[in-house]
Amino acid sequence: MLPAAIPRVVESVGEGVTELKAGDHVVPIFNGECGSCDYCKSDKTNLCEKYRVNPLKSVMVNDGKCRFRSKEDGKPIFHFLNTSTFSEYTVLDSACVVKIDPMAPLHQMALLSCCIATGVGAVCNTARVQPGSTVAVFGLGAVGLAVVEGARARGASKIIGVDVNPDKLTKGQTMGVTHFVNPKELEKPVHEVIREMTGGGVEYSFECAGNLDVVREAFLSTHDGWGLTVVLGVHATPAMLPLHPMELFDGRRIVGSVFGDFKGKSQLPRLAQDCMRGVAKLDEFITHQLPFEKINEAFQLLVRGKSLRCLLHLSSPHLNSTKP
């Protein structure tokens, strides 16, 4: 859950890049799309053979080298998540750059690089939530609230937000949450409460917390026979799923979703257009703005649960135009 890095305008392009030019408004993406590998040609995945998200990759793909050097000693500064956007200038593989409508407000488009695409896409592409469905969202951070936005746009009849932070209640209701559950205020497991609220469980649950205990509660909160759980949280430990294989025989399913199953370069421009038409309330996600040099304060706001996205800017805090 990173602060919203500064969106981009292309300064120059390298040899062989034909789909972008200087001056284009773009969004960097961590899950790239080369467009030519077997993965990119398949309609069954949004992963790319060469440019899929890889937190351990720290160099450019084509030549295995860095493009950044320290001013002090000339040592390489390694790349991160295909983007390296916490800087005034960056260098990216063209497979990880999405051209967007120049009329789209850049401060809003920064959100498409992660939380909005991940949450809305999980609803529309991965789960394919149907009108009138019941939904539970575990973890009401930026990704979780993007799930809420997607579920609202798809016409879900009941959207249950689950979070241990009571401050998420008001924000969640603003975004479309119809019912709120705080596990700290319950005397029994969350899944039992949700089953009682929905007559057996929700049709779709989304885990957005990166917590294995939450994964299990999300799974058990769905209706047996047809419930689907989508895992979106980042799990940094080597611990395994807290499920017994026989529990899958009750008809509940569980899947993971990367970048909301969007193919970044070919499908994200459409999402940008949809957001400009109001499919998601993008400004609601930007709760703070800080100058770039206060990036550590932005991280602390996230750690303390005080912000959804803190937009970092280089100079003027007035970001209601299309200028970077």
From TrEMBL:
Residue span, Alcohol dehydrogenase-like C-terminal domain: 142-266
GO function terms (MF aspect): S-(hydroxymethyl)glutathione dehydrogenase [NAD(P)+] activity; zinc ion binding
GO biological process, one term: formaldehyde catabolic process
UniProt domain Alcohol dehydrogenase-like N-terminal: residue ranges: 9-101
Keywords for the protein's UniProt record, in alphabetical order: Metal-binding, Zinc
GO-annotated cellular components: cytosol
Top-rank taxon: Eukaryota
InterPro entries cross-referenced by the UniProt entry: ADH-like_C, ADH-like_N, GroES-like_sf, NAD(P)-bd_dom_sf
The protein, known as: Alcohol dehydrogenase-like 3
Taxonomic placement: Eukaryota, Viridiplantae, Streptophyta, Embryophyta, Tracheophyta
